[in-house]
Amino acid sequence: MRVFVAGGTGHSGSYIIPELIAAGHEVTGLARSDASAAVVSALGAKVRRGDLQDLDGLKEAAADSDGVIHLAHRQDLLPSGGLDAVAAAELPIMLAYGEALAGTGKPLVTAGSIGSPGNLGRPATEEDPALPAGDEHKGTLRVRNVVERAVVGLAEQGVRSSIVRIAIIAHSTTDRVGFLPTLIALAKEKGFVGYPGDGANLWNAVHVRDAATLFRLALEKGPAGSYWHAVEDGGIPFRDIAEAIAGRLGLPAVSVPHDALMTPGYFGFLTNIVTQSYPVSNLITRRTLGWEPARPGLLADMDNGHYFSAS
Ligand SMILES: NC(=O)c1ccc[n+]([C@@H]2O[C@H](COP(=O)([O-])OP(=O)(O)OC[C@H]3O[C@@H](n4cnc5c(N)ncnc54)[C@H](OP(=O)(O)O)[C@@H]3O)[C@@H](O)[C@H]2O)c1
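That is the input. Now the predicted structure with NAP docked in place:
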């Protein structure tokens, strides 16, 4: 398949491009700078120069391909508009792909997030269409959900669209700015590893190589209008993560009471994310696509030491 990948130079994309090439696909990667073009080439893909703001260019790229994987996001909008603005910028991009691919049955696979499932009383599944949010996330998730519904809705226009919801922690040897490095940096700064309350709230994780395999499977054979869960560990108590970090750094793991979590407390602006529970199932993804995560789980990967080599 000739696959157009937007965001191939990013953390996930730099594993997805080699995964696709190894499976025999011909990949063209979007690059907005010489530096990005060099990365795309080094990963073994052809380069298509362009930017997310050039919707006509994205349409052309999609029309020239047999399928699209979209991972890029407008982080540049974060300082001025926050996560809402980043999510909102996705909508015209998805509609542009939709226009290019309508009626073709070609795949469009995009990256989504595991939102906070709130009080479902069970792990969130792939059949939960737009995950409900805690009050503090409502705005952002509402925007994200509009985008997700638009992507899934493209199935009715003859696009084999799907969304791969990536776990909160996507870990790898090249993870520099994800939640795990952030928690490690915070612990070093504070001199202890904090966890909220009793630390029993559940987080989820996936190895990025396993996530890359899932993107490929969704591209190759995912039915239209689907959600997939790129989650290997579907419910790790936050305290276990904190204790694993503590063990590696030689620092104590300490419960932070809820009234001391916010700024200028331990987690600051991360508090709303850190205090939530995100239990997630991957059963439908595994059964439907035959996806079997094979890389180390989160705690085993932390045990490998690469997250702590500079400490
Ligand atoms: N745990 C997780 O990692 C996680 C969880 C849930 C959802 N996600 C979503 O998964 C997707 C991929 O995440 P990631 O961590 O791999 O992303 P990333 O490392 O931040 O990479 C972002 C990509 O977007 C590209 N990009 C940004 N602005 C662009 C523009 N104006 N024009 C063209 N390209 C542009 C970047 O290209 P340059 O190289 O040119 O900068 C880069 O390839 C994102 O949408 C993210 O929100 C990730």
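The longest strand covers residues 107-113.
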